[in-house]
Amino acid sequence: MKSINKTFVKWSITIIICCLFSSCYSVRLKNVYGDPMPDPVSDRTDFYRMQKVQEIDTVITIKVTDKDFTMLLKECGTAGIHTVEYRNTFGGVLLSAVTFGRKRRVRVKYVCMKPTN
Amino acid sequence: MAKTTPYAKSSWDTLHNNGPFPLKTLYVTELAGSANMFSKYDRYNDAALEIQRLIREAADRNEGFRPYGSSWSLSHIAHQKDNMHYNGFMSIHIPIPPALTHENSSYANENLFFFECGNTIKRISEVLGSHGKSLKTSGASNGQTIAGCISTGVHGSALNVGSVQDYVVGINLIVGDKPTDIVYLERHTKPALNDDFAKKIHATVIRNDHLFNAALVGLGAFGFIHGVVIEAEDRFLLKRYVKKIKKETALALADTMDFENSTFKIDGEVDENGKPLRPYHYKVFINPYTNEDEYVIEIMYKKPYAIPYPDPFPVIKTSLYKDLIYLLIKLSEKFPKSIPWFIKQLRKTILPEVNEETLGTLYETFWDAPYQGPAFACSVGIHHKDSSKAYKVLEKMTQDEGPIPGIFAMRFVKQTEATLGFTKFPITCMLEIDGVLWEKSRKIMSLTEYSRRMIEVLQENNIPFTIHWGKNSDWKFPNLATHMFGDKVTEWKKYRNGLLSTEMQQVFSNGFLEDVNLNTPNDTNDDDLIVSL
């Protein structure tokens, strides 16, 4: 009986981990043209290695009357955006669900275009 | 005014994490804004003064100073323990009007372009594209800066073209802090621009083939490369095929470069007599841990530019979980015998898809390569006639003494005129093994040990070779530079000695040059060496 319980717990944990794993993903939009803004001082070791990354990690509240939400970006100047990444997490999905969509976790990374001379 | 920000750093690393290496100060220079300084020449010359100021400061502290760009080299060639200078923001390009072309120039004026050091291959391609032009070749990707490319000898697999440095026709160097220390070099047999151009960049002109060829692949030792003049050509398309062909055929093509009389033929890529055309690019991928009788090859043919053509960019690209790669490497270090199995499982990620066909410009074909985590690459240059012989001995060594987590590839490059260019054979086969960086364990040798064995095995089998300056090797191997380049080493040092003062030779030296014994000045110092011929 004990061994059946152990197996059940093991499989449950595996399934939960798989669900959490797949609910946590990144969608990235990248410009085919231009160079990303470099950051020679950065030590990061992810996709954005040696790139100047701007990060937004916040919770927004949308009123019932709001149709959408626009966040204004000033860092890129006139050069424009090179890459934008939106990250979805299990926690974010949960927050949205329990607040009936009123609160949304926004996790966005973006890299500006390197200005040309 | 150009602005330099110093950052106190304790270490610096390459893009592919081949370090970290110790460092004191990292400098980042940004150009004066175009609103404040309208003329591009003024901004360029203003930046030159700023670099001279930094050079003087380093010299006064009895320290070294080394510029770098995208950090793509996997060796420690870009590293300097005292002062490193990031020049990626120094990216002006200036059009060359016909009035600045030299009267004896054999280059079409419309093909000449002047780029500052920090322009990437991608940016240069975009500028050229807007003029209907293209680079003649690039590396397998596009993120390197032009100064980094020529300093280390970046190459693709353009067997009739050469490496990036081979289309550079003028070099602007800053070799000290005095006004006369800004020089503009060209070949005297192939002048490109006239003295008016040199005046615009406040440079002294020296037209001298020997000096130019020595400085061309200068390993960062010939001063600060501030700008280069390149020769572009009309934009063209590359028709790319990925095929699986008999191992014997792939290696025979490598050994002979005789595509015209080969049994390997692609429909449509034949001449009027039905004989196969000579390709622009030929690459062979080899997994050393399988005994398949076929290799994957990538072959490209040059076509005139014509629109429309199918979009060569895939809409969606995915990448492996970096944690998964990390896990595989950790397992490989503990259980090296699992490496061949991993490589087999990941072959779809590592190798291009067989029977894939694309058509695109050079810019589109050799596009961005995303960072995929710590990586290594060991690359030796051999005469293409030795391709299969060299591969066999290195494969045997890798199987017997490895495995290591990487696969081999062969690329082919036309001979360079650069004195220390590693593509020194009439057609050089660049035989490389690259993969994921690992750490030495009880069961797997270190990368340095592996690359030392590569050198020893090639020497034991009497195969003349060179090593890619920007890739991993046992750079402290005794007499390595002399073994690879013979008397050319003396010639290279002689011209460095003539162009740079002893003080500046020390400023522009680093651990890499010390390791390969290229830092020490020659005993001779010919007064009439650095002159226009």
From TrEMBL, chain A:
Superkingdom, natural source: Bacteria
Protein name: Lipoprotein
Classification of source organism: Bacteria, Pseudomonadati, Bacteroidota, Flavobacteriia, Flavobacteriales
TrEMBL record, chain B:
Alphabetical list of InterPro entries matching this protein: FAD-bd_PCMH-like_sf, FAD-bd_PCMH_sub2, FAD_lactone_oxidase-like
Entry superkingdom: Bacteria
Protein name: FAD-linked oxidase
Taxonomic lineage: Bacteria, Pseudomonadati, Bacteroidota, Flavobacteriia, Flavobacteriales
